Amino acid sequence: MENDKIVALEDRIPKLKEQRRRKANKRLILLVILFFTMIVIIAYSQSPLSHVKHITVTGNEVYSYNKIVKASGITKDTNIWKVKESNITSKLDHLSEINKVKVQVKWPNSILIQIKEHKRVAYLKSGKNYLPIMENGKILKDRKTEIIPVNSPILFEFKEGSVLNMMVKQLENLPIEITNSISEIHYSPKKTDQYHISLFMNDGFEVSATLRSFSEKMVHYPSIISQIDPNKKGIIDLEVGSFFKAFGPEVEDKDGE
Fold first, then answer.
1. What is the pLDDT of residues 187-197, one digit of tens each?
2. For 20-34, 61-75, 124-138, which range has the lowest pLDDT when averaged over its residues?
């Protein structure tokens, strides 16, 4: 029995040595791989290969590609390891026409900038030009056009500030079909109402309203005109209640000339 035990133990010793040798080899290989991986990473981070090579911008219409890239502060000499998404987002958020920004680092050397701009809700008449008005109340003076906008209200006598901001919010609360039916909106304050506006509709009617309750009452415009003789045009007063006053003979004669 003792001899059998000795023989069995002697048989196991080579196997144990082989197992230990394999574990040691695995550890060595792992350490070598980690070492060379670190060498590659360090070499890559310090070489021109780690510089930004591709910058993709999507969703931009108001701003050009070059404008977005310049504002982001990224250049082809920027090290991809030093790019901080939050810093780029903060820089682009300062552009007034931008609503949201999402920045993604695409390894090994690409940047994706996704832009969501404020939408255009109307145009301001300025001389012979039309200036886009964004949903944040900003007027894009450098985006003027002489082409009359289609399906967008044209505003007169407005300027950047609280009144224009109120006008924009009121328009955003309206269904698109009603907004598209508005041709012109004139800011025409009165002594009794500094928020008074006058509208000229595409169907020939005029609307007298106040910004305080404009969208709330204007939403009923289709129902109101459905009860009016289509051959009679006039002014729909939405300031206090809601009533219709047909144009007088002088206005009708003038329109007929």
1. 999 999 999 99
2. 20-34
- Of 186, 173, 193, 192, the residue nearest 235 (C-alpha): 186
Strand ranges in 61-139 using DSSP code E only, listed in sequence order: 98-106, 110-117, 120-126, 129-134
Nearest one of 88, 93, 55, 51 to 72, comparing CA atoms = 88
Q: For 51, which DSSP code?
A: B
Report whether pLDDT(12) > 70: no
Q: Which amino acid is located at 101 in the chain?
A: V
Burial of 242 (0-12, 13-18, 19+ CB in 10 A): middle
Where residue 151 falls (left for φ over 0; alpha for ψ -120 to 50; beta otherwise) is left
At position 170, the amino acid (one-letter code) is: Q
Name the token pair of 74: 């990224």
Q: How far apart are CA 182 and CA 20, in angstroms?
A: 85
76 in Cβ contact with 52 (< 8 Å): yes
Q: Listing from the earlier edge strand, what are the strands of the sheet with 98-106?
A: 54-58, 110-117, 98-106
- Phi and psi for 244 in degrees, rounded to 5? -115, 135
pTM, rounded to two decimals: 0.70
* Domain annotation for the chain: domains and CATH numbers: 50-117 (3.10.20.310), 120-256 (3.40.50.10960)
Closest CA to 214 of 159, 252, 170, 157: 170
CA distance 109 to 53: 6
Write the CA distances from 109 to 49, 129, 195, integer angstroms: 8, 43, 54
What is the C-alpha radius of gyration for the chain, rounded to an integer number of angstroms? 35
